[in-house]
Design a protein that fits this description.
Blueprint: H1 4-14, H2 16-19, H3 21-25, H4 36-50, H5 55-71, H6 79-95, H7 99-120, H8 127-148, H9 156-180, H10 192-208, H11 212-225, H12 232-245, H13 260-279, H14 288-307, H15 311-328, H16 331-346
Helix pairs in contact: 1-12, 1-14, 4-5, 5-6, 6-7, 7-8, 8-9, 9-10, 10-11, 11-12, 12-13, 12-14, 13-14, 14-15, 15-16
């Protein structure tokens, strides 16, 4: 079988980049953006979370800042107030290692955004805000999908529900704009990179549950949205390749039979495309993701060859993958290719 461990490692390490977009996009900015009483609480919250780590004190001052903002009538869905909420969620997840508490914060944000959109989203004067609020729902839902799937939580059904919700809302709004046109003052919708990131997050979820038949089309759509000059395209093509090669037997007696030879051939095509894409990427666009993606693609080409009984080709590909992994310090790649070579020798 293709090396799903390699593919999932690359996806797990680098696919989280989009999931954390919600944290990066709403960072507490200049304190001047807040009324001084709120800014005072935020300064203390950041001090106790970034300098003199005192979790209880940090959470207390984040909560005080939010309570005061509510008392003062500040828009709870403004970038400034959302920034506080996302900073709190990030602190709970990253520094306190409490993903369930971060989930509680983000679920409340999501619920508030959805309620606002249902009540005010159709008003002409709220078009720009509607776009911003819907975008927040998508990003928060993707992040919730990651958190629900965290080892400390492992609520896979909730993870899938959140990711499906994000992708459905994202594509529904995109299709509306394509059919009706962009209305005045609506502003831009989520860009291609973010759309691809959301699709990839859902694909990774399906891959983790061995639902490759669901992951494959999502990886394919993600590939179509990303620039070939981006090293993450190599990761996507490699994961698409692995997903194709792992398609299961028919799920019901009425499903068409799986053409294993055709799937393996398509998988090889995408793995080779990953290598070709990586070879064309030059600095400053090229980074370590390109190199690791190449090592994974080489290894998987070896596994595809094994599936077809071509031991000589499999050995050649594993040797290539092992050599590249050693050169770039890719420990997992070195281990996995070495293991496959040893198995070939023991036959």
């Amino acid at each position: 079988m293709p090396s799903t461990a390699h593919s999932s490692i690359i996806t797990a390490c680098l696919g989280l980049v989009y999931a954390n977009y919600v944290y990066r996009s709403y960072i507490i900015g200049e304190f001047a953006a807040y009324p001084e009483p709120i800014a005072r609480h935020l300064r203390r919250a950041l001090f106790y979370s970034n300098h003199d780590l005192q979790p209880e004190a940090a959470v207390k001052y984040y909560v005080k800042a939010l309570e005061l903002a509510n008392e003062m009538g500040l828009d709870p869905l403004s970038d400034e107030i959302l920034g506080v909420k996302f900073q709190l969620a990030s602190f709970l997840e990253k520094q306190l290692h409490q993903p369930r508490m971060a989930i509680d914060v983000l679920e409340r944000v999501k619920e508030h955004c959805i309620a606002w959109e249902k009540e005010f989203g159709r008003l002409d004067r709220q078009r720009e805000k509607r776009t911003r609020v819907l975008g927040q729902v998508v990003r928060v839902s993707v992040k919730l999908g990651e958190l629900y799937a965290a080892p400390e939580v492992m609520e896979t059904e909730h993870a899938e529900e959140s990711l499906v919700y994000a992708v459905t809302m994202l594509l529904k709004e995109q299709e509306r704009r394509q059919s009706e046109g962009v209305r005045e003052e609506e502003g831009d919708w989520i860009g291609a990179d973010e759309i691809g990131g959301a699709l990839e997050s859902l694909a990774n979820h399906y891959e983790s549950r061995s639902q490759h038949y669901l992951a494959t089309p999502l990886f394919l759509q993600s590939v179509s949205l990303i620039s070939p000059r981006n090293c993450h395209a190599v990761t996507l093509m490699t994961n698409l390749s692995a997903s194709l090669a792992q398609q299961l037997s028919p799920r019901t007696p009425y499903d068409p039979p799986v053409d294993r030879a055709a799937l393996t051939s398509n998988a090889r095509t995408w793995a080779l495309k990953a290598l070709e894409t990586a070879a064309a990427i030059r600095p400053p666009d090229r980074n370590a993701e390109c190199d690791e993606g190449c090592a994974v693609a080489m290894h998987n080409l070896g596994e595809f060859a094994e599936m077809e009984g071509d031991v000589a080709e499999a050995r050649r590909r594993y040797v290539e993958a092992e050599g590249l992994s050693r050169a770039i310090g890719f420990a997992e790649g070195l281990k996995r290719s070495g293991e496959r070579l040893k198995l070939l020798e023991d036959r």
